[in-house]
Design a protein that fits this description.
Layout: H1 5-17, H2 20-27, H3 31-45, E1 50-52, E2 57-59, H4 61-87, E3 94-98, H5 101-108, E4 118-122, H6 126-134, E5 140-143, E6 152-167, H7 173-180, H8 184-192, E7 197-199, H9 204-214, E8 224-226, H10 229-236, E9 242-246, H11 247-255, E10 259-263, E11 269-278, H12 284-297
Parallel strand pairs: 3-4, 3-5, 7-8
Antiparallel strand pairs: 1-2, 5-11, 6-9, 6-10, 6-11
Helix pairs in contact: 1-2, 1-3, 1-4, 2-3, 7-8
């Protein structure tokens, strides 16, 4: 195992600024990210490098020795970094975004070739995206969930409605009659006998919709578990079966008649969508451009 250069950069920033928060501001990462780097470096060296107090991080003797070892090499690296950066000002900035796969397909995929900067898309669970944003691994996330990290800010920009859909070949006559007559329990029992599509990674839509509108947890298993919601839309198109998905992901398929909107519920289930960013970032211009693209698509 070798030590990480970012650990040393963070150690230097803490040593010179005296606090974790000031080091975080200097490095444009979160304070938990700074703590993570320091803890990793201390674990690697096997020595405590700072005495922690409420107001200041005081370097230990081992911390002073390490600082004297690394300060000259790090300064040379910083000079070299600035030198080559000045010679390559026309190089493209790289922005990292966290979002779900379907959101990427629906919003950004068609615009990538026109973006004036590099883009890295990361798919995953929302709590991990929030942690990666806080630690500086992501610059922007699209999420229906707000975290409690103090270094992050969430801006609402849209809503998604969770709806019941069916393939256009599905006979929904009896179901629609039950729903129209407000026979909710009978409609629930009928739906449980149908063919269902879902995804392994996101059963929350089904559970939330079912508990909200039918007053119970869904006590059945979907017949087909597919990789993502886009797969559900393609499988249902011009076919039979049911699923529960966000409305914006199926709007085009509904408009083209490939699937049909069956029910939004008596009181629709809606999620607020947020842009998540760090409070301080060097890439505000690029992030604003991405946020504008996403808002226009929605």
């Amino acid at each position: 195992m070798k030590w990480n250069l970012e650990w040393l950069r963070t150690f230097k920033a803490i040593y010179e600024t005296g606090t974790l928060s000031a080091a975080a501001q200097e490095l444009f990462i979160s304070q938990p990210g700074v703590s993570l780097h320091l803890n990793s470096l201390e674990a690697f060296t096997g020595h405590k490098l700072f005495d922690r107090s409420a107001r200041r991080m005081v370097p230990t003797e081992k911390g002073k020795i390490l600082y004297n070892y690394i300060i000259d090499p790090l300064k040379k690296l910083e000079i070299g970094e600035q030198h080559f950066h000045n010679r390559a000002l026309d190089e493209r900035i790289t922005i990292s975004i966290g979002m779900c796969f379907e959101t990427f397909q629906y919003t950004l995929e068609e615009h990538i070739a026109q973006l004036p900067f590099n883009l890295i898309i990361k798919f995953g669970e929302y709590p991990q995206m929030q942690q990666d944003l806080d630690n500086g691994l992501l610059d922007l996330i699209i999420t229906p969930q707000k975290g409690n990290q103090q270094n992050l800010v969430y801006q609402p920009f849209s809503k998604e409605r969770i709806v019941l859909i069916a393939g256009c070949q599905t006979d929904t006559t009896e179901l629609e009659a039950l729903l129209q007559d407000n026979k909710i329990k009978e409609a629930s029992q009928l739906l449980k006998k149908q063919l269902w599509y879902s995804t392994a990674a996101d059963m929350d839509h089904l559970r939330n919709f079912w508990s909200t509108h039918f007053g119970e947890h869904p006590d059945f298993s979907p017949n087909y578990i597919v990789p993502n919601i886009s797969s559900i839309i393609r499988c249902l198109s011009n076919n039979k079966g049911f699923s529960i998905v966000p409305d914006f992901l199926c709007a085009e398929a509904i408009a083209s008649g490939k699937i049909k909107l069956v029910w939004e519920g008596q009181s629709p289930v809606e999620n607020t969508l947020y842009f998540g960013t760090r409070k301080k970032t060097m890439y505000q211009e690029e992030i604003s451009k991405l946020e504008t693209l996403l808002q226009e698509k929605w």
